[in-house]
Amino acid sequence: MRNKATKIIFALLIIALVGWILKDTFTQSGIEDLKGGFTQKATYRNDNNTGPIQRIYAVAVKDTTGAELIKYGNLMPHSKYGNTKVYFFLEGSQIPAKLFPGTENFDKQYNSSCFALYEKGAMGNFGLTRNPLP
Prior knowledge:
By secondary structure, the chain is α+β, with helices and mostly antiparallel strands. The chain has 2 helices and 5 strands, in the order H-E-E-H-E-E-E.
């Protein structure tokens, strides 16, 4: 009798564990859950898969007052020894449709529209800079 009770308890624990894992898997928060109303407008990723991978994003933000800019940046893909940049623009302003690698990632005419830059470096260090461009 005791052996049967042990099997039942073990089975219930397994079912509870699997249920908890499934719940956690399907209820992960994503970009749509962040405050700010983010819309990705342009992306760039270099073709180099053997060296540093450079990812650049131009993102429109509806509401900048409570926008979770760092959380958004942390959700963007990043490769070890690579670089990820996310330029934030107020929705309705001029936003670049094409991005380029290097130090200047879009045409200078859009500089005044960019209100923040999130950057994650090669070693995983990240930061947010307000009004990053002259």
